[in-house]
Amino acid sequence: MCNCKYRAWGAKMILIDTQKKEFNRLKDIRILEKGADEVGLNGDILVIGLGGVGIETARSLKGMLANKMKPEDNIEFLVFDSDIPNMEQTIEDSREGVGFNATEVISIYRKTLDDLLIKSDTRAYAYSDLAKWMDPEMPELNIGINGTKGNRQIGRLMFSNAYEEVRVLLFNKINMMYEKSKRNGGDGKLDFLIISGAAGGTGGGIIIDLAYNIRAFCKAKKFENVRLGSVLMTPDVLFADKVFKEDQDLTDLLNANGLATLKEITYYMDLKQRDEMFCFESTTHKLTIKENVFDSCMLVSGRKDNQGYIPAGVIYSDAAYFMLKLVSKKFIGSGKTDGSKELLRDVFFRPNENGPFKIISETDYRIPIKEIENISEYEVFKEAYKLLNESAIDKPGIKDKIEEIVSEFREFINQPAGEQINLKASFLIDTSTYGKPLYKSIKKGIDTLQQDIDVDLNKLKNNILAVQRDIKLKFMSSIEELVNYSMVQYGPFATMKMIGAKGYLGIEEDTGLVKEIKTLEEKAQSYRPTGEFERIIQSIRDICAKRFFAFPSAKRETENGYYDACIKNALSKEKTILMDAINAEDVYGDTVRWLYRVVDRYNDIFGPFCSELYVSIDDLASNAKRTLGYMMKEARQSELLPVDYVTPERIEDMRRCLVKLFVENEANIENDRSVSVKEEMERIYKNLFAGLGAFAPEKFIFNAFSDEKSGLQELITMFVAQDNEKRDRCLYRAAKAFVQGTYEKVGRKKLCVTEKDIDKEYRSERYISLPDMMPHFSEEIKKILIKEPYNISPDLITMNVGEVSISSDEIVFDVPYTVLGCADDMLYSYVQTDAYKGLHIDQVHDYESVS
């Protein structure tokens, strides 16, 4: 990693903060995996979150889908709540992509509720028909903008009161989605998934009414292929929170509400078999319907470990992860007779036969392809990063370019006075235009050579400012071109080392380009003009004045000597003029200072950025090694890439790509604008792994578990073969280590905790799916799973496109809520305490027979 001398640290902190999200996104890069988004989603579904619990779980699901959903998938979200501040916050959060926007949020709070609830003079309900199901002894409450305060009857009353406006928003959304499903090429279909807590006043209070209104609307519109399901969370999902743990009255209220909600849903899940109708009334509407409230209702409960209840956020995420499978094209089972497979979503929505609820246990043993990628990427990245820090001065052509720039000025400074000047500048004297004076004119002192020279030298003096600027511009432009060329070819750090400024990248003394220019500056400043040729000219004139040469040869020698002395004197004066001008303009000093600014700028721009990039990729590789530890304990080799894969050519390819990343985003980094690091690095990694060909993840795993290191060509040959004993033997060894390690590490994850082993008392179906992107490895895993101690039937194992995990889903059907681990606590609070139960219909129905 670069050893930068950091300056202007405050500016760099802004840069790092700006890029932090982008660096974090590196962990989301997928090159070798085929994610679920690549095979499409199982759309045509409206996900509805009710109250705080439902909204948070729906938010988690939306986050998982954020980068996968496309408009044509027809997946939409709606959330209902009575808590105005919470709704405002989730709308605000949507700007950061983690909440719900204003079109997805429906408030059931209206200011008219107090007038609707009670007449102050008679303490009678203003609308007796609407409130006839309310408990006459319901405690007095101040209804405000902060929700129902756990009162289910107030939640239902809010929904009924706001129904006229709510129904427009809800029904428009349903109608739009159903019509869109038809436009997408189908006959029209739509699934509804309502997520709610059972314990609160909003979710528990409105879930049944909302569900029946959806059913009634779809029935009135004659929509076919419509299914309605629910994910219902029991009160104990909240009990890890200190607020509930320390408030027994609040806990009792939630438990009592939870049992009341479960009892009501239990009743309405079997309404078809009863001689009754469901009835809903608002101030102006009334509907009756004889349908079971849900086709399917899944229970989620709180879980305990040795430290107590697991935080609600973990439970929300786990539940959302299972729902992610419902909106993905996840197939289960070995397939039907016609070769087709059944979707997990269809099994989930399949109506129960003998009981109201479904209980889910699910565990995904993720095959760590991403972690393998991270380690392999880092192996090439770190070598490329080393090259980025090698000085560009030793790269092909750089020394020649430096010499080309500097040699002209070095020659000008070092050449003796009186020599022809080859500096590229305007207004320099042209000695070829001067005629040689005759001896006679020299003797008489009337020759015009010196006058002609003086004219040209005066012209140079008169235009010296333009000459100064011209020399400086050309010199600095050539230096800038060199720096830019080096930057584009070799990157910022190699260029900084080529410049060689003291105090940066560990450079203790000026080197490279700075040293070369400072050497020119020192020699230029030490230059002193000579009067040697003036003395020679005067000496010749003195001799001519005293003597008369009769011989033609002597005259010619005098003429030649005089001419040469005048020319050399002119060139010497010209050099002095130019040297004084260059020193006065401080051409070399300004160039050195400019180079220091360039280095300082590059250091400020790229120092923290590149350091953070390196650290991010290094952290991913380190975390990957820890994650792979339990799986790789049986590995023969530590290397994942083929032994001959990290070649100088591939390292050079990555180095060039990294340089391109820096160069193309220089302005963005400098101006604190976000850089799409993920997209850029993903492009780089795609180029890197393209050479591995098909079955790349399996080649990685094979290489690690092989008895001997393999070359790339050998692996390619091995994995394109239909049968290969060496390949299968090695992958079986890897699969065994993987399955054993993951079962030991992860275990089963239950979304609902029960008091007993219900999978033996109720109908239970367990499905295993394996990733089809690793067919050889998955086949070896299957061989292990169908044997002891796992004993999974081959008919329950399927290959799923887009998966990167061994997925185990166990669904237990037709279970009553009384089997829950939290059932006794809910019943105690419901019966033995004064906690407000908030039942809608408890006065009418006796639940003993169904509880």
Explain this structure.
The radius of gyration is 42 Å and the shape is elongated. The chain is of the alpha/beta class and 851 residues long. Among the domains are: 41-356 and 821-832, Tubulin/FtsZ, GTPase domain (Rossmann fold, 3-Layer(aba) Sandwich); 394-599, no CATH class. The longest helix has 42 residues, at 587-628. It has a 10-stranded mixed sheet with strand order 3-2-1-4-5-8-13-16-14-15, sandwiched between helices. A two-stranded antiparallel sheet has the order 6-7. InterPro entries: Tubulin-like (IPR025904), Tubulin/FtsZ_GTPase_sf (IPR036525). It comes from Eubacterium ruminantium. It holds the Pfam family Tubulin_2. This is Tubulin like.
Strand order of the largest sheet: 3-2-1-4-5-8-13-16-14-15
Cα distance, first to last residue? 66 Å
Largest sheet: 10 strands, mixed
CATH superfamily of the domain at 41-356 and 821-832: Tubulin/FtsZ, GTPase domain
Summarize the amount of helix as a percent range: 40-55%
Number of helical stretches of at least 4 residues:
30
Query: Residue ranges: pLDDT <50 for 5 or more in a row?
Result: 3-14, 842-851
Q: How many extended strands?
A: 16
Percent of residues in beta strands: 5-15%
- CATH fold assignment of the domain at 41-356 and 821-832: Rossmann fold
CATH architecture of the domain at 41-356 and 821-832: 3-Layer(aba) Sandwich
Shape type: elongated
Protein name: Tubulin like
Organism: Eubacterium ruminantium
